[in-house]
Amino acid sequence: MLTFIGLGLYDERSVTVAGRDALRDADRAFAEFYTSTLVGTNVADLEAYHDTEIEVLERADVEQHPEQILDAAESEHVAFLTAGDTMISTTHVDLRLRAQDRGVETRVIHGTTAQTAASALTGLQNYRFGEATTLPFDYAHGADGLPASVTETIDENRERGLHTLVYLDIKVDNEAAVARAGDEELQEYMTADTAAEYLAAEYPDLLAVVVARAGSSDPLVRAGRMADLATESFGGPLHLLVVPGDLHHIERDALRDLADAPAELLD
Questions:
Q1: CA-CA distance, 122 to 116, in Å (whole number)?
Q2: Which of 164, 205, 215, 211 is closest to 192 using CA atoms?
Q3: Checking CA distances to 240, which of 10, 56, 102, 211 falls within 20 to 30 Å?
């Protein structure tokens, strides 16, 4: 049995009750935190809270050499853990299909996702979001200016009146980031002000919304002009940025009351 468990957004308590029970019942637990992570906890605290030893894997272990996961799941109850939801954005469908091909039973226990949290905290309606995009650090994509994948997604969504969720880059033990910092265990999280600074080069006057620390006890939501957000500080990670499309009157009220959006940007 291979059970995919989403751990939720923030710390060891963010997992659902079903996910907690499945993890505690597992014979073996693997996790990956290279695409997203739980900034409110660490592996030791996760293990202590769930009374389970967790083996943390690198990207290559999961995507190129998943045999240790699959071999174990043929004879044991194996849990595979990620932050958020294992099948949203951090997609592990390929691993699930490989297990199915071996005749291994699989199931998915969902966790809260960044997209649902962004919608809930901002008041922007979930069904009015278009395609999401990820904004990389400028050193990571190897080109000048914003990547076309980012600008094209934002532009196409805006043409359709849809909101855009912009995921912000995370580098955990990434070679390029380590080379820059000289740190063998670097963790680097793009902040919303950095993201706004990048995006302000193309969209200085657009309304944008920062979501920081979703899932924690002190989330922050702040709306403003893109160029203005680039000059602010939003505290600790993780951060998201939303570029709204056309606003329903309830969404307009929500951004005003929940995110302190300037009135002139809501017209």
A1: 10
A2: 211
A3: 56
How much is the pLDDT for 180? 44
Q: pTM for the full model?
A: 0.88
| Of 51, 105, 109, 101, residue with least CA distance to 81 | 109
Instruction: Say if residues 233 and 148 touch (Cβ distance below 8 Å).
Output: no
Amino acid (one-letter) located at 258: L
Separation of alpha carbons 136 and 142, rounded Å:
10
Confidence band for 179, pLDDT divided at 50, 70 and 90? very low
Structure tokens of 61? Answer: 């272990």
pLDDT of the residue at 112: 92
Measured distance CA(190)–CA(88) in Å, rounded? 20
> For residue range 41-69, what is the model confidence (pLDDT) as tens digits?
999 999 999 999 999 998 889 988 999 99
pLDDT at 181: 46
Whether residue 94 contacts residue 67, with contact meaning beta carbons closer than 8 Å, is answered with: no
Which of helix, strand or coil describes residue 119? helix
Domains of the chain in start order, with CATH, are: 2-109 (3.40.1010.10), 114-265 (3.30.950.10)
Hey, what's the torsion of the CAs at 60, 63, 68, 74, to 10 degrees? 180
Cβ distance 245 to 157 under 8 Å? yes
d(C-alpha 185, C-alpha 208), whole Å: 32
SS3 90: coil
